[in-house]
Structure formats: C-alpha cells, structure tokens
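step: validate -> pass
step: tokenize input -> pass
step: predict -> running
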Amino acid sequence: MIPTAIDAATARRRADLGKPGFDTTAELEVLPSTIGQPRAVEALKLGVGIDHDGYNIFVLGPPASGRHSMVEHFLRQVAQEKATPSDWCHVYNFEDPRKPRLLELPAGVGCRLRRDMEDFVEDLSTTLSTVLEGDEYRTRRQVIDEEIKSRSEKIFSDLETDAKERGLAVLRTPMGVAFAPLKGDEVAPPEEFRKLPEEERLRLQQEVSELQDKLQQGLNEAPRWERERQERTRELNREVVGQAIAPMIEDLKARHQELPGVLELLDVVKKDVVEKLREILVAAPDGMLQVAEAAVRRYHVNLLVDHSDQVGAPVVYDDNPSFANLIGRIEHAARAGVLTTDFTLIKGGSLHRANGGYLILDARKLLSQPYAYDGLKRALQAGQLRIESPGEALGFATTISLEPEAVPLSAKVVLIGDAMLYYGLAQHDPDFGDLFKVAADFDPELPRDAEREMLYARLVATLVRDRELRPFDRSAVERVIEESARMTDDAYKLSARVRELGDLLREADYFAGEDGASEVVSAEHVDQTVAARTFRLDRMRERSQEMILRGTVLIATEGERVGEVNGLSVLQMGKFSFGRATRISARVRLGKGQVLDIEREVELSGPIHSKGVLILTGFLGARYARDQPLSMTASLVFEQSYGGVDGDSASSTELYALLSALSEVPLRQSLAVTGSVNQHGFVQAVGGLNHKIEGFFDLCRARELSGDQGVLIPASNVQHLMLRPDVVEAIEAGTFCVYPVETIDQGIELLTGVPAGELDESGEYPAESINGLVKRRMEELAEKSRVASRSGNETP
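step: predict -> pass
step: emit ->
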C-alpha cells in the first residue's frame, strides 16, 4: 500500500506552553540547577559522598552541555556545608635552610601571622637601632672596652717603669716597640751608646732582651683579652637585645597562644635574633645601624594557602593546569647577578588552594600540558603535595634547590572531558581506574514532554536573568524549545547544550534591541536569529544550489528517467550543515552477479557506504534469484561527485535506481530519497533528515513548487522531523510532500506509480509489477548466461 504524505503537525512538533501559562520569562522561577541528568547527578553524589582514596570523578559528556556549570553549582552547594580547611605556611628551617618547615594553621590565622611577622621585622630595625645606639648601651659597652684597654696600658706602664730602672727608655714607633739607653731623663743619642764600654753595652743588650720577653708575654695575653671583650659584648648584646625584643615576642605569643607550632617558631626567632645580631645589623653609609633585609627574610612567613575569606570548603577551577600551576613551584630571584631562592619564593598550586575541597580541571587541557597529568597522579597516589620541578619529579639531576616539607592532600579532583577521552584513558592508563572510580555521564539530549518543556522554559528564564537579557515572551520560549529540538534532530528530544542555548538567547536579545522599541523578545526575534545564522554561513550552500540551477550540476526535479534517482546527503561545514541533492544512476548488463560500486573502485567510498552497496547484492539475490545464478553486473555511481562518499543513507536510493534499470520503468525526478536498506528490503532510519529534506525543498522552491515534489524518508525517521516553518507551510499548502516508507516496495511504487507486486500462491509476482518485471529480466539474463556458457563463451 502506498503511504500517504505526512501532515504539517507531524512535520514539526510545536511547543505549547499555554497551560500553565505565562506572559514572559520574568514570571518564571529560576531553576536551582540544570534540568535532567539524573545519571550524572547520582554519580556526583556518590563521588563527593565517599571520602576515600580513588573516589575522584570524571565528568564525561559533549562540550557546551552545561556540564561545567552544573558540576560547579553542585560542588559549591556541597562545599558550603563542609568545614573551612586549614591555612598552610612555610617557615624558615633554622637547622637546615634547604628544607623549609610546614606550618598548619586554622583558617584565617595564616594571614594574620604573616602580617604579624612582617610588622615584627619592620619594628625590629627601629627597636635594635634604638637600643644599640642608646646611652645606657654605649656606657656599658665603653666600660668593657675601657677595662680591656686598661690592661694593655698597664702592660706598657709596667714595662716603662721597669725599663727606666734598668736605664732604658721605651719608644713606641710605627714599626712597633723599641728600647734606647737613657742619659739622665732623656734618651741618649746613638753615638753615646757606641761610646759606652763594651761591658755596659752588653749589659744593656741583655736588659733589652729581657724587656722584650716581658713585653711579648704581655702581648700574648691580648688575644685572650680581645676574646673576652667580644664575649662580654655578646653577652651584653644578648641581654640588651633579649630584653628589647622580649615584649615584642611575648605580645606575638599572646596573640597565638593556642598554636604550639607558632610558639615554637617565636622562641626560635627570638634566639636567632640574639645570636645572629652581627648578621642582622649593618652600618649604613651615614654610620647609623640598619637591618640587613636578606638576613631578616628568614623571619617572614610564606603563606602558601590563605582561607581567610573562605566560607566552607573551596571549589577551585584551574583554567591552565600546567605542572607548576597545579603542583606549585619554587621561584628564583636575581640578586647581585646570581639566581637565588629561599622559602619565601615557594608558591602553591591549584591543588594547594583546593586542598580540603574540590578541584575542577579540563581533562584535555591537563593532558596537553607536559608532566601535568603525571604530577596529578603522583600527588593523588601519595596523598601529599611535594613542590618540585618537573625534572626532580622525573628523577633527573637538577641544580641545588629547596626541599619544602610536603603538604597532606585531601582534595577531591573532578576531571571534565568527552567520552572518547574517558574511554581512552580507561583503556590505556592502568592507574586511571584506581584514581577516578566515579564516572558522571552527561547526556547531550533530554526527553521532551509537556513537563520538561515547562522546565526548559524555566531554564530559559534562568539564562535570561543570568545574562541580563530582555524577558522572552511565551511565543519566543516556544520557538526556542522548537529550535532546541532541531539541534538534536529529534522531535522528542531537547538539547542539553546550555552554551549553544545561551548563544541563541543572546543573539535573539540583540535583534530585539536593534530597533530599540522591543522591551521583550518575541518569536519573530528568535526566527530572525535563526535566519541570520543561516545567512552568515550558507555561502557554500548557496553556491552549490546555484550550480544546480545553472545546469552545471545535473539534478532534475520534474519528469521521469530510467535508472536515475535523486539521493540526498548532508554536508558539514564547521557548525553549519545543509542538505544537497545528488543524482545517483545505475546501469545493468549481463554479468557474474556483481553490483559494481564505482565510488569504491576509485577509492572515493568509505567502508560504511561499501557495506551498504554489498547489502544490495544480498537483497537482489534473495528476492529475484533464489533458484538461479545472479547473472548480471550493475554499476552504481554518484554523478558529478568529486569528493569522498561514506554512510549507508543512500543504499535504498541506489536500490531504487537498480530496480528501475532492471525493470526499465522510469522513476519520478520530482522525488528525492534518503534511507538505508537491509537485505530483507526494509528501509532503515538515517541521520541529518531535516537538513536533507530542506535542501531538496530549497532547490524545488527555487525552480517553483509544482505540488508534485517531495522526499521519501524512512518511516522510523518521522519522530525526528523538526522542519523549518517555511517547509511546514508548503506541506500544509500541499505544494511539497514528505512520504514515510517502511519497505522498498512502498518506495518503488511512489517513485514509479507502478505496483511493486506481491508473490502469489504459486510464488510468482504479477507480470506487470515492478518485482515481476525485475524477476523476468533476471531470468532473461540467467538464460543468456547459460546459453553463453553452453556455447563456450565466457560471461563478461
């Protein structure tokens, strides 16, 4: 039985939001989260609910499906109920400066401690300068110096007295101490010494030698006295400086009295200031004492993670998850022409900021960064964050650097990527399954019914308010829902691609504001948006149709032809898709039972298309040559096709061309065909249906619709119809038709106007039916093959 054409209501499933009604989206409640996705939501609940190693989450789904916003919204709701995690600091290790110590502090305390230590260092300069340049300190220091100096003076005083008793004078010269004989109370000239008797000269020389020994004994005590002076000065410094900074340290201890780690740090800092005073204080050009910045850097606190403004657990998204941004890094600074580093140059990564909460990462970005994925796995497996360079992480020799104490890791990691990436990692990375045990699968489509249409309207209202757009009236929302169904190529589905939906709303708002008069967005503005999108991208479609209209590409839309039929295909140009008609022709001759696919022979055919052509051989043999050889050779070709062909959506079209060539019954050129076929002759669903129909409609309308034109589609594809309004109008007016067919017999009757024919009780088809004519032609070819075989001629 020939199927009837579909009606306008079937061609486009309209949205109806009349009950319960609303005028604009301003009246609708905002959605708390994305609609649908129950499978993904349950997975997220499981992942965040199990607080054990390995229960990290991989969110898989197509881009622009709202997966990121939904995941972040879900995690922030959960995070609000959790405790705010600790602050983490690195402080100087006074025992081993290469290994900075880690300090865990309650949330918000780290910032306060860092500020307190900065103030301490700043006050330290003033305090030390005031104390060490004060009168009391100088007086006590002078007493020590004078006492030591008096000892030296006493040595020389005693030496001079002794020398005088021996008739010698002590002379202090730039070259040291010398002795000379006395003449009265004056030093005798050298010639007087030479005039003395030999015995007297020898006595004086003996006296000088004894005095030199005595002087040397006194001078040998000088280093010990200098050490004593230095030690007493240090003791004085300890006492004075200790007393000066004690109130500062005690004040800091009072502010952090419940933190043993901080109290221990302050005790060590106090001791170090006293012990390293000579390193800390240096003389300025003006002679005043000042604190050496490099020396007091060790008293600072390097705040690695600050949660002073955090409420609940953190939710962090790292847009650039490089190894350093993820794990942290140790920076270097140029000082005096040399690169140096210290604990204050240790910087935390996104894992540090998310510690105790949740870290969201884009899986593709993570994998594109060198060593980042390996670094993440190592941190999750070890349960701690060790800041190191990639070379150190891989065991390569590196320059001497710091080895900061590792931070215990308790962050839940959420990777977001597509399904192909998830299954690829699951198959090729043996660690992946142990670290990411929860998969949250986002569906790019949502079921469409009256209840979900209303929820979708609330989603539209939410996006409109978030993006601060004009309210959408009910007709505009209905049109948006219909366009959402068109995005899925399914009348009973809605698109979950929130980003694409948001773009549609934003552009419709733009057109509503173009004239400056519209306070709300209407259906007209949504239609304007769709039309403008098509116009911006349809240059190739326009050129393709122009070539057909000018006769460069031969496509007929009227008349009848044997072995020729209009097939339909879809071309994808980036985000823009359009349907195009292609002439498919078939020729038949005596042969060995082959259906020759010219596209495959010249390697322009993909494997799926080749499979579809081979199915035709099975159909022809099973229906028309059960008891005899299939003694024909047929050639099939996409006329004027110069690119690759793949897919099986033209297999039913090719079969119609073959049946026409075999029966020599012409096919209507006013009809185009899409649909695949199985070996039993049933027509099967294909993709891109709406674009295919609209492509042929555009061509027929350009040549003027006659009312005889239309498209044959698989009956199982009717549920996917969401045709453009202009196509629906033509269907309603009867100037264009869409025929749903279930079998090849139904399709061939539509295309030829001749009954397909059914087997009678004797197993024969009516003689003038299509099946009867094809079978008779098959028998004739088989007979010719047998005659040729008996005569010794090989069948070509």
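step: describe -> The chain is about 45% helix and 15% strand.
step: cleanup -> pass
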